[in-house]
Amino acid sequence: MHSWGRLEVLVLLGVVACGKGSWAWAAQPRGRILGGSEAVAHERPYMASVQVSGVHRCGGVLVAEQWVLSAAHCLEDAADEKVQVLLGAHSLSQPEPSKRLYDVLRAVPHPDSRPGSIDHDLLLLQGDSGGPLVCGGVLEGIVTSGSRVCGNRKKPGIYTRVASYSAWINSVLA
Predict the structure, then answer these.
(1) Domain 44-173 part of CATH 2.40.10.10
(2) What is the pLDDT of residues 138-147, one digit of tens each?
(3) What is the three-class DSSP state of 152?
(4) Among residues 49, 70, 73, 113, which one is catalytic?
(5) Are 59 and 48 in contact (CB under 8 A)?
(6) What span is annotated as the signal peptide, if there is one (predicted)?
(7) Count of Cβ atoms closer than 10 Å to residue 89 Cβ
(8) Which residue has the higher pLDDT, 125 or 25?
(9) Is 172 helix (H, G, I), strand (E, B) or coil?
């Protein structure tokens, strides 16, 4: 009799939760979107680009007015650089009238996050006016680690489960 391990159950639940009925995503991706398709322009207004010195560094998600949730490792080496958040973009490389760039006034890493560790890899950014894993329209995770090449089957993405940190997020936002 097979005994299900925790990892197997989490993978199975993730596949079911994201509505993936096949393993088609396991094929080497041809574009920048893994296991999905390009969204309709501005269909997901909560998506953010965290930028360091004008260059996209990580994805993020708008969780409240003036607050974006991302991964703490994104700013580990950006101490003296300008950090901004881009909202309203469908394409990072094309001009769009809907794009809005906000300076980050405050970066609040999770108190237990540590450089080089994937544990507690969360960061809240406060702007002057915020790479999420979204399943069924619900924020499930923030990218913590993975290959620089999206879809690398030898080094899959690792995500921090956002729901586990809701108390911390709410305490910072309060």
Answers:
(1) yes
(2) 666 666 665 5
(3) coil
(4) 73
(5) yes
(6) 1-26
(7) 21
(8) 125
(9) helix
Q: Is the pLDDT of residue 33 over 60?
A: yes
Whether 129 is catalytic: yes
Helix (H) or strand (E) holding 8: helix 6-17
Report pLDDT digits (tens) over 150-174.
555 666 666 777 788 888 888 888 8
In angstroms, the CA 167 to CA 1 distance is 39
In sign, the C-alpha dihedral spanning 92, 95, 99, 100 is: positive
Q: How far is CA 64 from CA 67, 126, 130, in A?
A: 5, 10, 8
| Residue ranges covered by each domain of the chain | 44-173
Q: How many residues are listed for the chain in this entry?
A: 174
Candidate list 49, 110, 113, 121, residue with the active-site label: 121
**48-87 residue pLDDT tens:** 999 999 999 999 998 877 789 999 999 998 888 999 998 8
Handedness of CA 29, 33, 36, 38 (dihedral sign): negative
Q: Which residue is associated with the tokens 């560790």?
A: 117
In the set 53, 98, 129, 166, the catalytic residue is 129
Query: Which are the contacts of 41, defined by CB distance < 8 A and separation ≥ 6?
Result: 90
